[in-house]
Write a structure and sequence with these properties.
The structure is a homodimer of 388-residue chains. The first copy, chain A, has 388 residues and is α/β, with parallel strands linked by helices. Chain A starts with 5 loop residues before the first strand and ends in a 7-residue tail after the last helix. At the A-B interface, helix 4, helix 13 and helix 14 of A face helix 4, helix 13 and helix 14 of B.
């Protein structure tokens, strides 16, 4: 553990855990949802909005920040926290997922992932060491190891190969991270902007329980501060995702936070907390907001629908967010159809409030031993199909 | 005067006036700048931001709101204030300027302005009566009469014709407005959503002092609640604009607010307050913000410039706005170049703060009899050319 990093479990309810994650930039109440601040900004809202929403941690994308404005520039500006004016915890991913999903070209070598920038086609090589260096320069509170993502469904062989390579990469990433932590002078080209940075390993293995078990064992051996479940929400059916989480999460060290990467819909949060997951991130609340979809306890509301043209009721009558307290469906529909940027802002404020409020309710329920009841309630009222 | 409308001059300093404008939705301290909420939203910021900025009045564009979502819909939703969730004063223009500047086709008849929508090419007829009806349905606190705008430079004949037609239109607009105010039952098709709405006349006459004098006399005869100077900031040199304002403003009734439409740059505010103008509106602070131009006491700062890439100082070290208190030039440059919507938001918050703060300083200076000193100071430090 780094000096600044700690995790305490305060309450349990079944496999669900109510915890407190300490980082160099403050404490995160878990289970927690991390809004995604792709390029140093959560799209269409400001840092002040995030504070008002009581977001305790956000995620930054290493791939994007590395390409623009560059980790060197951010380090010279004092690290990511100072650069973006956000003093609470930040987790950065390794860049591996965006190399897989965004890059113009990707070639996996044992050395690392070679790719071309989606912006200008320039050629780059992301190695486990380089991913650790970039994140050290960004100075996030939690860095992730570089892993190899494969599309779903992947056959057993590609899944095994990617899992095994991810383990080898994780070992190299850990070595480099510990070198930067304990002997920064040995890497004079890397400006470590947050000496208390923790590093999480990532479990891969596709949808195979056997591969997942192997991956857990090999990754936990490397003694990271904590562990993530990667390679899910990449196209597999949701029930399969739940099964993999149900299998994998309990194998991870009980006393360390568990992070399910890139998930998901609101009902996913309940199902995966039930299996012992502590951290989530997803672009869904902000991306869907920009596409005019508002999420509520009953399900999605598609704001452009003609039936809302003169509907003066709030988007979600049960919601206490700024948007729902002040604006009508008719107004939000007008803004969305007119293409006003404010539509994205107001919808994002609502969706993030909904996610963060859902996590608050989950944490409270765990404390009171009523998580299972809340989960059943949510299941009965929430549908993924537009409900309004 | 309507019941809800009043104007009191509290202090004078030369021709500059420090006043208080009372409307059905509250009081506006003048001289005042009105942020432009084109389609029911000030672009890229929220109503909460406007309240935090202490904007006391905003402007809505009748042309845009009439086309989308329609004044009928807004009336059925309770009027513009309720529709957009803004409880402070609103001024609406007549739509004439956008018909002149935006419409796909425009033909001026004595009856009114025939035009095609810039959105779908549909054919519309905006008459003085219709413009009054639309604004009655919107329920703004201040409605403007329909006038005919001409490009600058216009020859003496087109300028005279447009001025004289504007006077005839103003008479019809006033008649219709008073009918709606005193006998709404006689116009059952029009839903008057703000019975306390005031109506301002508009002085035209291009850059000819003689025409301006004639226009003032004929318009003031119609006994509006107050008067605007229209047809400026349409391409004429800024000195000519100042001359027309210097000539026209003092001709207007002393006890009524004077509104200079569509102006302008920060130095324009000082020059025109000096001639007795009380109200301003302009898209410049928000539009330039979206284009990456931040306005300061020294002049514009073009945020995309390479020299700001690693500049950790605030955009304007003298400014106390949210943006300048929390973010660096380097971060704002990154957001702008990355195309993040948050760039528009943060830049707009700064520019609007700068305009509204400038008006606060102007009001204070008038109270203390030091307006001329402030104006000279501003002149010496402010340049329209990028200063950073």
């Amino acid at each position: 553990m780094t000096d600044g990093f700690d995790f305490r479990i305060l309450n349990r309810d079944g496999l669900a855990r109510r915890g407190e994650l300490t980082t160099p930039h403050g404490v995160v109440q878990t289970p927690a949802f991390m809004p995604v601040g792709t390029r140093g900004a959560v799209k269409s809202i400001t840092q002040r909005d995030l504070e008002d929403l009581d977001a305790e941690i956000i995620l930054g994308n290493t791939y994007h920040l590395y390409l623009k404005p560059g980790d060197g520039l951010i380090a010279r500006c004092g690290g990511l926290h100072r650069f973006i004016g956000w003093n609470r915890p930040i987790l950065t991913d390794s860049g591996g997922y965006q190399v897989y999903s965004l890059a113009a070209m990707r070639r996996i070598h044992e050395e690392g992932a070679e790719f071309r920038s989606h912006i200008d086609g320039s050629l780059h090589m992301l190695t486990p060491e380089r991913a650790a260096d970039i994140q050290a320069q960004l100075g996030s509170d939690i860095a992730m190891v570089l892993d190899e993502c494969v599309a779903s469904p992947a056959g057993p062989e590609p899944a095994r190969e990617a899992m095994e390579r991810s383990v080898r990469w994780a070992r190299r990433a850990r070595t480099r991270h510990l070198q930067l932590r304990h002997d920064p002078a040995s890497a004079p080209d890397v400006a470590v902007t947050n000496p208390g940075q923790a590093q999480f390993g990532i479990v891969q293995g596709g949808i195979s329980p056997g591969l997942r078990t192997e991956s857990v064992q090999a990754t936990v051996e490397l003694a990271f501060e904590a562990y993530a479940i990667g390679g899910l929400s990449v196209g597999e059916p949701v029930d399969v995702m739940y099964e993999v989480v149900a299998h994998t999460a309990p194998l991870l060290p009980d006393g360390r936070p568990r992070y399910l990467m890139g998930t998901g819909m609101p009902d996913d949060l309940f199902e995966c907390v039930a299996h012992g997951v502590d951290l989530f991130d997803c672009v869904l609340p902000t991306r869907n907001a920009r596409n005019g979809q508002l999420l509520t306890r009953r399900g999605p509301l598609v704001i452009k629908n003609a039936r809302y043209a003169e509907d003066v009721s709030p988007p979600d009558p049960e919601c206490s967010c700024y948007t729902c307290r002040h604006f009508s469906r008719a107004y939000l529909r007008h803004l969305f159809i007119a293409g006003e940027m404010t539509a994205a802002t107001l919808n994002s404020l609502h969706n993030l409030h909904f996610y963060l409020d859902t996590m608050r309710r989950i944490r409270e329920a765990i404390v009171f031993g009523s998580f299972e009841k809340l989960r059943q309630e949510f299941r009965q009222t929430f549908s993924r199909r537009p409900q309004y």
